[in-house]
Design a protein that fits this description.
2 domains; globular; homodimer; six-stranded mixed beta sheet; 20% strand; alpha+beta; Creatine Amidinohydrolase
Chain lengths: 368, 368
């Protein structure tokens, strides 16, 4: 039994538990999890159809047929449509063939409405649900192969830290740091998990700043958020440095965020929930008087997707479980001044505590 | 009246014609078209809500509130949710406030099912449609500002041709060519329209090959497909070269694709349809005996999205109209050997003929 067969068997258990008769998955993490294959189809439908009992099959435009036929899971039933014919008639045939309109159909959470609404039109009386209900618990608890891939992604990401720090210099642009990261990634044979965020000075006060042409200057606090994707799995860390010198305020804020980060890691323990981890980190920042400047949740699950379950957020009472992997990334964002966010990826061990996949975060604001 | 107000007025005409009471748009081209703003919200809902009569408003997570408030269209009604509360309760309030559940609601074609299905749950009896029906004719016929942006994107893309050719050399990897393009783009202050495709030798026989670690060798035919995004609008061209020398077959296939491309451009004329342009290009390749190796449509519309209406495909009887912008990109893909695809962007002039936005394609296979 291959890893893909095992995952399929577990997903089918999940389908049964959720009352789902069929999955229709468009390219993305769920397709990748079940087949090792995913390829952006853009406005053309590529779909994996998984009936709860019958064999799986792919639908693909002719453009991608060769790639789909080479899917690592070895799924041989590949049905091809061409641009002149369109996909609706082929899917209609499959619906009739396999009586997919009987029972609940679950579609990929990321499926664009252009497909989801048309699928609903082709099966007007069939209830549509989200496929994540059959995947979420499985995909959140990583198996051995997945943990190995996440460690590789973390290692490849850590290897970029000196590259990022070396590229930060007065007069250099944010974009030049991002390009240095891109180049190092390419030379190592990896892709980026996401567009790197390089945010200098007051740009750092926007958590999702777009890396741009801003030139860094002495004294700037620089937020560096990047990750390597290895074997399909995402790395994701955030480091902060100051150029040449740092203000007392910058050092103080860094220290608070560092302690919040450590408190979050320490809160990962047998019986703890996602909520507990969020609270532990948040409390340190609130106690220091910066609560209103911590604008987001403490972390997010990570795996085939950069953001997936479990969500490390207030109110999420999901108990943490062995194999869960997530970021811990508290931050303080001071409008018009600077931002500090510190992020590592952790996994929950069999004993319930955290194992940190990345290098230790420097306890004091690094000056570069 | 700003450009955004004018577009809104025209989109509202489109809504009326299509019987749509409300648009709910997630980040993407339609949001950008109406507001100048778009920002990936990933699993968090950022939405622009456009009732046919009431004022527009934004829904945003707190994380993106500052960015949303700075929207170029100056939309001041920005309603904020936070991670602990979630977005459903806020949207429910807005639905009640504005009685959005009365009448047909159109959602963004790219809206992920995770949002579209929940929106349907919040308004179970409200019919959901695709918003593109209100946008497509407008967005396909570019206005003056858009044509200017597309010309800038084409110019910035053309400027990369010598960079790509210079990076192609025996022993260099596909990835190194892609990185050279990325670097030149970054230095010019632009983003990529899409991940560049660099496909050497037999990799070129897959139209959407992933740029990888393959090393090029003398005699390889290399497909180079890339584009710069400028002012939000996409450039997209494909050029082909051979390293050091070229086989007779490569020269012959290049010549056929070149003639197919020219035939496609010439077919753009008053009264012509998208189908006619596809047929003209396809006929040249079929007549040369390579019909079965031309795997895709002849082209795609381009604008805020790299692929949008009009689709230049057999069966699309849409008459071409002034302001339409699209690619003409016939190709021949010989499995195990190589591929050739030649692509420029054209726009339809007031007289109905094509104006080519890019540099002329070399009539003979360039040797680099």
């Amino acid at each position: 039994m291959t890893a893909y067969d095992e995952r399929l068997a577990r997903v089918r258990d999940g389908m049964k538990a959720q009352g789902l008769a069929t999955l229709i998955l468009t390219p993305g993490a769920a397709m990748s999890y079940l087949t090792g294959f995913s390829e952006a189809g853009h406005e053309r439908l590529i779909a994996l159809i998984v009936p709860s009992t019958d064999a799986r099959l792919f639908i693909t435009p002719s453009l991608n047929a060769a790639q789909v036929r080479a899917n690592p899971a070895g799924i041989g039933d590949v049905r091809v449509w061409d641009d002149a014919q369109g996909w609706e008639s082929l899917l209609s045939e499959v619906i009739v063939d396999l009586t997919l309109d009987i029972g609940v159909v679950a579609v990929d959470d990321d499926m664009p409405a252009r497909f989801a609404l048309k699928i609903q039109q082709l099966m007007p009386t069939t209830p549509l649900r989200l496929a994540s209900s059959a995947f979420a618990p499985l995909r959140a608890a990583k198996d051995t192969l997945e943990l190995a891939a996440l460690q590789h992604a973390a290692d490849a990401t850590d290897a970029l830290i000196p590259v990022a720090f070396a590229a930060c210099a007065a007069g250099a642009t944010e974009m030049s740091v991002s390009l240095a990261l891109q180049k190092a990634l390419g030379e190592a044979g990896h892709e980026s998990s996401f567009d790197s965020i390089v945010a200098a000075g007051q740009n750092g006060s926007s958590p999702h700043h777009h890396t741009g042409k801003t030139k860094m200057k002495t004294g700037d606090v620089v937020v560096l958020d990047f990750g390597a994707r290895v074997e399909g799995y995402c790395g994701d860390i955030t480091r902060v440095c100051a150029l040449g010198k740092a203000s007392d305020e910058a050092r103080r804020v860094y220290d608070i965020v560092y302690r919040a980060h450590q408190a979050g890691v320490a809160a990962v323990d047998a019986g703890a929930t996602a909520h507990d981890v969020d609270s532990a980190a948040r409390r340190v920042i609130a106690d220091a008087g910066y609560g209103e400047f911590f604008l987001h949740r403490t972390g997010h699950g990570i795996g085939l997707e950069c953001h997936e379950a479990p969500n490390i957020v207030g109110g999420n009472r999901t108990p943490l479980q062995p194999g869960h992997c997530f970021s811990i990334e508290p931050g303080i964002y001071l409008p018009g001044k600077f931002g500090v966010r510190l992020e590592n990826i952790v996994t929950v061990t069999e004993s319930g505590s955290a194992r940190v996949l990345n290098q230790a975060i420097p306890p004091e604001l690094p000056i570069v």
